[in-house]
């Protein structure tokens, strides 16, 4: 029997407020120094929306309703990832640094002036969001 390939699923949240996107500067992990979305890995047996909500709260302290925005297949990078991303609606709270060992700071960036050093795993998702695309392959 052929074994099926396994690869991780990332769940991310785009938190947009007054035309600005919330990004965190990554620390002690892949892409250290780059700016990334709140998010992480989907856990086995977890709904994607629940995983994204959990990651948002664990990393930023924010609570929000989530709306699916896009799926990005990062097949051309190593490691291969699938990213499911959600837009935060009805945001409650202000971002706090909940995991200082993984993130240096949370910062708001204008959607038309994002930093150049966006984490490679999130570039495709953000580009698709800005183009109003629900799928990026």
Structure description:
- This protein is an alpha+beta fold and 137 residues long.
- The chain contains 2 helices and 9 strands, in the order βββββαβββαβ.
- The strands form 2 sheets. A 5-stranded mixed β-sheet has the order 5-1-7-6-9, with helices on both faces.
- It is globular, with a radius of gyration of 14 Å.
- 35% of the residues are buried.
- The mean pLDDT is 94.
The fourth-level CATH homologous superfamily is: Nucleoside Triphosphate Pyrophosphohydrolase
**CATH architectural type:** Alpha-Beta Complex
Portion in strands: 35-45%
| DSSP E strands, number | 9
Helix proportion range: 10-25%
Layout of secondary structure:
Elements: E1 9-14, E2 16-17, E3 20-26, E4 35-36, E5 39-41, H1 48-60, E6 63-74, E7 81-92, E8 103-110, H2 120-130, E9 135-136
Parallel strand pairs: 1-7, 6-9
Antiparallel strand pairs: 1-5, 2-3, 3-4, 3-8, 6-7
Summary tags:
Nucleoside Triphosphate Pyrophosphohydrolase, 137 residues, 4-stranded antiparallel beta sheet, single chain, globular, 5-stranded mixed beta sheet, alpha+beta
Summarize the model shown:
The protein has one domain: Nucleoside Triphosphate Pyrophosphohydrolase (Alpha-Beta Complex). β6 and β7 (81-92) form a beta hairpin. The protein has 137 residues and is of the alpha+beta class.
